[in-house]
């Protein structure tokens, strides 16, 4: 093979990244897979797009000056799903799909009669992976076709390819046991021989380095029954003992691998990758890696800020003498940031200078690597530019708005502590006469084609603000009429004006910037464009009051105002890294507080502040969790603590199991909490009860993620179950989440059934 090409440096390398995005600079992969699913293109055409994206990635990395190029980080859907294929661990229910590519997509998305794999958050990022299922009969077997092909196409171009795979510990720790199988990590000894086989295969293909990702080593995952340091030492001692193999880089990211680094140091692997943005160089210094290549992630791979090159170089220098060799890298795959700043024409010059997306990060890595070997002088320009940008960032008035800082500093606990819940309940019951088991919805109604079209027309100037407002008002009127028709008790305006529950607010708050093309993959073909929170956050104008009061003017029933909470706004944005998250959260909380007060003044009796992402920002290490929950809860309470007793505050949570943050949910002190009841209602409610939860709750009785319309009987059964756990005077009846992804027909039928179920249950209590 191509051992002797100019780029190949078999024993070590100096500059790389752990992985890159694969959706395509212009989301080519999204378009192609969606076209394939819709039957508009065939597998050959899809593969052509994929090959183009992979080639483009290799060329970008080579052009940046990297001497080791990650491959196999391409994926048609998800790298964990790819690993399930690699290890022969797809669930048996997809075996009936004959074509491998269709089988893969069946596992990812399901078919008419095959349920897809469950999806969940990749560590504490906004990327979602497909959870592998390990059953009692899962018989692992190596299927290296994908990785072999991607290696071959790279080596054929003379690229110094470093194939990347998810490691066995991470794979199993992130899997779930099904069908009564034992804990997945107990199968580790079945996987090690497969990885050994893979190493042999890659060696024969001419590969010099392989990267095995073990991000789970920075967490407390599996620490109950398996000590992760012991496990890492055992697995990598075994893999490094394989006779003819490439050099092994064990790559960690998203945190400090602490004692696990020392465990890896005791094995014969040749390289260890560390995240020096989330972790520190101290941990590396003490880990005994003096004979290893350390791939130092000093450039943040998951946030968008330009690197302080002097500081990064100092971190690298501090490793000298403590490691065998040093390579520069990003802290993790650049999957989590947009491709390039090119094309962001709306950015003002200052902001442009503060940012670095993937392509700009590659240049930073390369500059640091060259500075390490040749000194700073021939990199002087890059370093000067970095210093100059940082200086303007520190002095920009938008980053320090004294009015908001003083206001935040002046807040007292009384500002975020409402009257006792029981007293509020009386005031609220007196203000509104709701039946027992009141019915409501979570906020959004179907985002129809007309709504999207109107938004597009506004953006490209085909209609003006007034015309847009009129169209949205028409939508609101229809949604109000629909809710009256089906007989709901507490109505909502339907959120037609919101492109996204975070972006909508970010666009109206000062301190945020919305990118033109800053797409990142959320899961599969779905991409999001997170706003960038760069400065102090203030609210120049009311954001929702006009829409909600318009809705209220159309009906005698109470309309619930609808806001996104501060934690969720942070979780789904790129957030400034120059101050503690808690301070930033406090500023966003004040903006939402002003909005709740504004709604109350405008006569809105009920206000919901959504916090679906409360669980998402939970730190990976248990030791950091209390501090996080403390500021997160305080931020929510600042948002909602400025209203009178008679104003009813709702909150809504979803996307997660909340078992480990139930105490924090109780501490939010909302009057009504609607919660996704993905497991059984009893479990959610038992958890809430055990946390001393005494407020009102609405466990979802309609799973809005499915096109299936639940029957009156099913929803009545759910309500009976819920009534066994909480008394009737604390129970609300509502769907699991917003209805924006459903069709109008489904929504009308499902809500009609939901109201009928509530009436039946009322007759029984
Ligand atoms: N109010 C939002 C909606 O109904 C809540 C969405 C969410 O929880 N993710 O769409
Ligand atoms: Zn939800």
Count of DSSP strands: 21
Q: How much strand content do the residues show?
A: 5-15%
Question: What topology, given as strand order, has the largest sheet?
Answer: 1-5-7-8-9-10-11
The dominant shape is: globular
Low-confidence stretches: 1-10
Mean pLDDT: 94
Number of helices: 27
How far is the first residue's CA from the last residue's CA? 76 Å
The major pleated sheet works out as:
7 strands, parallel
Gyration radius from CA atoms, angstroms: 27 Å
Ligands (ions, cofactors included): glutamine, zinc ion
What does this structure look like?
This is 5-methyltetrahydropteroyltriglutamate--homocysteine methyltransferase. Its EC number is 2.1.1.14. Residues 17-322 form the Cobalamin-independent methionine synthase MetE N-terminal domain. Belongs to the vitamin-B12 independent methionine synthase family. With 765 residues, this protein is α/β, with parallel strands linked by helices. Helix content is 41%, strand content 13%. The strands form 6 sheets. The chain has a 7-stranded parallel beta sheet. Strand 9 (271-275), helix 10 (281-285) and strand 10 form a beta-alpha-beta unit. Helix 22 runs parallel beside helix 23 (625-640) and helix 26 (712-725) packs across helix 27 (744-764). It is globular, with a radius of gyration of 27 Å. Residues 1-10 have low confidence and may be disordered. It binds glutamine and zinc ion. Zinc ion is lined by residues 442, 612, 652, 654, 737-738.
């Amino acid at each position: 093979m191509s051992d002797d090409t100019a780029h190949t440096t078999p024993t070590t390398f100096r500059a790389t990244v752990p992985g890159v995005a694969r959706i395509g600079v212009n989301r080519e992969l999204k378009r192609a897979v969606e076209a394939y699913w819709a039957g508009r293109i065939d597998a050959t055409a899809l593969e052509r797009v994929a090959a183009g994206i992979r080639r483009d990635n290799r060329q970008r990395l080579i052009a940046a000056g990297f001497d080791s190029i990650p491959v196999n980080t391409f994926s048609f859907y998800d790298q964990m799903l790819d690993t399930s294929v690699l290890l022969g661990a797809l669930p048996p229910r997809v075996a009936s799909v004959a074509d491998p590519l269709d089988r893969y997509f069946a596992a990812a998305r399901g078919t008419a009669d095959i349920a897809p794999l469950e999806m969940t958050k990749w560590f504490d990022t906004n990327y979602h992976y497909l959870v592998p299922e390990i059953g009692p009969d899962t018989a692992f077997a190596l299927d290296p076709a994908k990785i072999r092909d991607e290696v071959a196409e790279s080596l054929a171009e003379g690229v110094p390819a470093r194939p990347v795979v998810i490691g066995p510990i991470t794979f199993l720790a992130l899997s779930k046991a099904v069908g009564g199988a034992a804990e997945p990590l107990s199968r580790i000894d079945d996987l090690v021989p497969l990885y050994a086989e893979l190493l042999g295969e890659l060696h024969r293909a001419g590969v010099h380095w392989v990267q095995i990702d073990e991000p789970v080593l920075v967490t407390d995952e599996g620490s109950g029954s398996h000590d992760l340091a012991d496990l890492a030492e055992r697995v990598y001692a075994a893999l490094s003992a394989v006779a003819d193999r490439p050099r092994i880089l064990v790559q960690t990211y998203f945190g400090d691998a602490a004692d696990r680094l020392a465990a890896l140091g005791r094995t014969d692997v040749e390289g260890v990758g560390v995240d020096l943005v989330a972790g520190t160089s101290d941990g590396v210094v003490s880990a005994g890696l003096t004979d290893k290549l350390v791939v130092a992630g000093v450039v943040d791979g998951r946030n968008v800020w330009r690197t302080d090159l002097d500081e990064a170089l100092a971190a690298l220098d501090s490793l000298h003498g403590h490691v065998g060799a040093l390579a520069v890298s990003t802290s993790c795959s650049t999957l989590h940031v947009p491709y390039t700043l090119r094309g962001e024409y709306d950015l003002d010059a200052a902001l442009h200078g503060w940012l670095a997306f993937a392509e700009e990060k590659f240049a930073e890595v390369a500059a640091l690597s060259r500075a390490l070997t040749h000194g700073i002088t021939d990199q002087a320009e890059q370093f000067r530019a970095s210093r100059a940008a940082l200086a303007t960032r520190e002095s920009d008035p938008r980053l320090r708005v004294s009015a908001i800082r003083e206001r935040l500093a002046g807040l007292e606990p009384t500002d975020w502590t409402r009257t006792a819940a029981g007293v509020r309940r009386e005031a609220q019951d007196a203000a509104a006469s709701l039946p027992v088991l009141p019915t409501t919805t979570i906020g959004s109604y179907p985002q129809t084609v007309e709504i999207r079209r109107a938004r597009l027309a506004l953006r490209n100037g085909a209609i003006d603000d007034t015309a847009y407002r009129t169209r949205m008002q028409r939508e609101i009127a229809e949604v109000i009429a629909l809710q009256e028709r089906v007989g709901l008790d507490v109505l909502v305006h339907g959120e037609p004006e919101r492109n996204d529950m975070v972006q909508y607010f970010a666009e109206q708050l000062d301190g945020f910037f919305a990118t033109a093309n800053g797409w990142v993959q959320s899961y599969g073909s779905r991409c999001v464009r997170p706003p960038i929170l760069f400065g102090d956050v203030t609210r120049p104008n009311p954001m929702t009051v006009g829409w909600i009061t318009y809705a209220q003017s159309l009906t005698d029933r109470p309309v619930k105002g609808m806001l996104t909470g501060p934690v969720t706004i942070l979780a789904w944005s790129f957030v400034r890294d120059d101050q503690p998250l808690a301070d930033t959260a406090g500023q966003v909380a004040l903006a939402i507080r002003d909005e709740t007060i504004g709604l109350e003044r405008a006569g809105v009796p009920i206000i919901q502040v959504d916090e679906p992402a409360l669980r998402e920002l939970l730190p990976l290490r248990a030791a950091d969790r209390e501090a996080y929950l403390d500021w997160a809860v305080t931020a929510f309470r600042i948002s909602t603590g400025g209203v009178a007793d008679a104003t009813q505050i709702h909150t809504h949570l979803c996307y997660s199991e909340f078992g480990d943050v139930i105490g924090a949910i109780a501490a939010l002190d909302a009057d009504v909490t609607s919660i996704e009841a993905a497991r059984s209602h009893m479990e959610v409610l038992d958890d809430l009860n055990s946390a001393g939860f005494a407020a009102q709750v609405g466990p979802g009785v309609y799973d809005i993620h499915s096109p299936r319309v639940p029957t009156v009987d099913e929803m009545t059964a759910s309500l009976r179950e819920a009534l066994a756990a909480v008394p009737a005077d604390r129970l609300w009846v509502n769907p699991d989440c917003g209805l924006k992804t459903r069709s109008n027909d489904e929504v009308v039928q499902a809500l009609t059934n939901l109201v009928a179920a509530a009436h039946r249950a009322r007759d029984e209590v």
